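Input record (one chain):
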Amino acid sequence: MYTNEKFKTYEYDVVVIGGGPAGLMSAITSAKAGRNTVLIEKNGFCGKKLNITGKGRCNVTNNCDNQAFLSNVTKNNKFLYKSISSLSTFDLMDFFESAGVPLKTERGNRVFPVSDKARDITDALVNEAKKNKVSFLYKRVEKIKKISGDEGKDFFETEVFDGHMSKIKVLSESVIICTGGLSYPKTGSTGDGYVFAKAFGHSVITPVPSLVPLESPDVMCKKAMGLSLKNVGVKFVTQSGKCLYSSEGEMLFTHFGVSGPLILSASAHLNDLKEKVTLYIDLKPALDEITLDKRLLKIFSESQNKDFLNSLDSLLPQKIIEPVIHYSGIPERKKVNLITKEERKKLLTVIKNYPVNISSFRPIDEAIVTSGGINVKEINPSTMESKITKGLYFAGEVIDVDCYTGGFNLQVAFSTGFVAGNNA
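The corresponding structure, as predicted from the sequence alone:
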């Protein structure tokens, strides 16, 4: 280290910007390769966002092979082929097990620490970084530029604000940008990496929320607020009749609309909601229409003298009965024995195609990940190095890649961080 009038100046081989999963893995891998590495994180500690993932449990990866992994990448999956081949889901699981974090596999092949504590994942990464002599600098990066030094050798100058009206310059041969996207901005994901990348001539695909709840203007959503539905089918259909997404699983009604695993996965396919989209919920996907009609006939025969409102308790959750009746158009106080065949058919249609009008995404700060980011066409997928600026690398959510829920997005961060760290 040396000083001058304005700056304290440090020299390293590799600077990693961002202390999330991608940054920590980049720093560990770089240091293991013998490079003098510093990780710069603007929060007072690493892993702030990582510590709240999976509701604080951290769905660290998915216990699946590379082909299954790539099938769960919703955008630019071919770009990740080299990364997942370099650090597979199984490799990552071995990494954490070897670092003293026992793992378990749950439904959907989701992998969690046995302790159910995300902090154990973060601590393992930080400890591994320290063991490999990674330096940590908890300051905010203001700008990065490339300058020519002695003998015509180029290097990076990373300017860091230290909070006391003075600044630090960090000189390095390589820089790895791992600053995340725009989701959960309170954890530090405020789009800094996009600014740094643009300064070097990179283009940024406009960030939009992905894996995010959806808003609906329908009053009936509020009627069903708090209702969690398991084993239902969903399909999202545009006004022109195109099906954008369909699947089965779990979802939740909220005061603003809908959420839950099915909804979060679907949000990655909704094309910015430029066209009107309707969600249709199959409340009984295990029953085809003929079987469901027989079930309704049986229920009606057993409830002939009841009001329609009181006849569906054995078929549907209580909170969804009033909304279903609303959409069926059948008067709720009508006696069951007076319901016509045509009315029963309308009821059947509603149960198999319960409609929810979708108006918008929830704000990007509620999204699990950001869709969009640094254009992958400008990054070498084999090394994560910029095709525009030699020595500049990217890893994690700052890149324009995103996946379904289930541990896939974190695996992207670790795999791309591993490749960037190995090549920086």
